[in-house]
Amino acid sequence: MVDVEVCINGDEVDETRASVTAANAGGAARVELCGAMQFDGLTPPVESVKAARNVFERNGLLVMIRPRAGDFQYEPDEVELMKSQISAAAQAGADGVVMGLLNGEGHLDLQPLRELVELSQSLGLMTTFHRAFDATRNRLEALDGLIELGFDRILTSGVAWGLPGSALDGVLELDRLIQAAKSRLEIVIGGGVNPVNAPQVLRGLSAWSGKLSVHAYSGVQDKGRTTISGVKALVDAVGPF
Questions:
Q1: What is the DSSP letter of 108?
Q2: Which residue of 13, 16, 56, 148 is 20 to 30 Å from 64, comparing CA positions?
Q3: Taking the domains of the chain in order of start, what are their residue ranges?
């Protein structure tokens, strides 16, 4: 079974509530709540996390932990801010957090990542490494590193960060990663995913074992708003897989 995860812009509380309600009614297994999607997603306001928790009925409310736009290299004070944001997300009712840190050479920044994962685990939060994964110099090396750190999930398009293309363009790389993961963690396919191309991506993969999800943002929206029909269409599209 392939789950559907919906990314939602949580800048405004009322819009958050409406979008999360639509994702819930459409059958999404999880929502990823972000702020400032014009910057590819930052940490959302705590008030929006609370609003999302009030209307999302399942165990699957994930909160982006990204303190600023730009690269994924963080100074010690930014790491401390991320820790406080993780704690705040947990207190507001989140089930998981989404984060990513790299060093200047394009590899995982291991020590702060370990600290953030350990904090998240101590708070009972699921951990997802976001699309900073697509900016790593060596994805297979990063995959093994994230498994060793204890991450539960990786979000990837299979396309190098900053380059054009959707998950459909990255399907060969996605297949390579899914096979290499060997069910040790969940792979979440994101990047331009919609009800039309999601089945094409899944058909392009070799037989897999373990947990696999698809992640959509604009692909389940109408005029910039998440809709029940859009989410349901994606749920139905991946249902046979």
A1: B
A2: 148
A3: 2-235
